[in-house]
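Not sure how to ask, but would you mind making up any protein sequence you like and the tokens describing how it folds?
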Amino acid sequence: MSKKISVGVIGATGMVGQNYIRLLNDNPWFEVVYVAASPRSTGKRYREAVAGRWHMSTDIPSKVAELVVENAGNVGSALGKCSVIFSAVDMEKEAVRKLEMEYASKGFAVISNNSAHRLTEDVPILIPEINHDHCGIIPAQQKRYGWSRGLIVVKPNCSIQSYMIPIHALMQKGYRVARMIVTTLQGLSGAGYPGPSSLDIVDNIIPYIGGEEEKSENEPRKVLGKVSGGRIVPDESISISAHCTRVPVIDGHSACISIEFGEAKPSLDELKEVWRSYRSVPQELDLPSAPQPPIVVREEIDRPQPRKDRDAENGMAVVVGRLRPCKVFDCRFVGLSHNTVRGAAGGAILMAELLKVKGYIG
């Protein structure tokens, strides 16, 4: 590519925003030229705005370090500087919804890490390996709101990333998933900084994360749904029961999944072969952030583990293991994904790469 696409990050000083900055630094297609955050950071150099709270393992990219932080609420300040906005603002849901709509109305492609538009009928919740075809609703979205170039797409909840791609791989091979019981063990970084206090989480598990169980039960249905009549119709054929817990792990969301299939009951060896051979559009298009392979199968009895497996394929792969028969349903396994990479900024960047190839941005 001769010229990179100029992008902006709003909510750039938070944990997800910092991950955007880190991951986009080496992206061959996109370049961060605009950063924005809350009014308390406005007017500062980015390095000053995150001084003492830069939580990434690498240094602040030098070009971004010197950018002046703008007010995320001032949409006009981004005009003429970039065409794509990665949204990671920390605001009330209705405020996020209105702000993202305003950016889209001004012609920006808004790629959001927030949940504000996940239930909006004509806004796709994208996992590029699964529902890349949902990009096809964007023209209807633009027509409805009168946008010539603007659009909104959203990333799903980070907790469903650890098992939805393996589930989709099985469905693609014709195995109908009728029911699922899912228990997530979610890392601390999923709560943002500073997250739960040490007195709450050390030597402890918190068996409640507000809103997570509802998202884990409902968002997969939209991801697996169909575009029809200018809206995304959720797939109601799957019954999902979710338990969501916070555990004392820094990064990595694990999930223990039990599955009941329909009529066709694959063997364990067949399941593993499906996962190992699975490839989808991001891999076929060789998108820069696409994991090769998207699913990593571990045979060890005690894997996957967050510390050992969350960084597989640069944190973009789903790692599965402990596949075995289930005495209630048909089979059970453990899935793991990196919640701040695949589940947040990395997954959104992959979405942007898909949209670029499809011709919706750039």
Remarks:
- Residues 5-157+344-357 form a domain with the Rossmann fold fold (CATH 3.40.50.720).
- The longest strand covers residues 177-186.
- The radius of gyration is 20 Å.
- DSSP finds 14 helices and 14 strands in the chain.
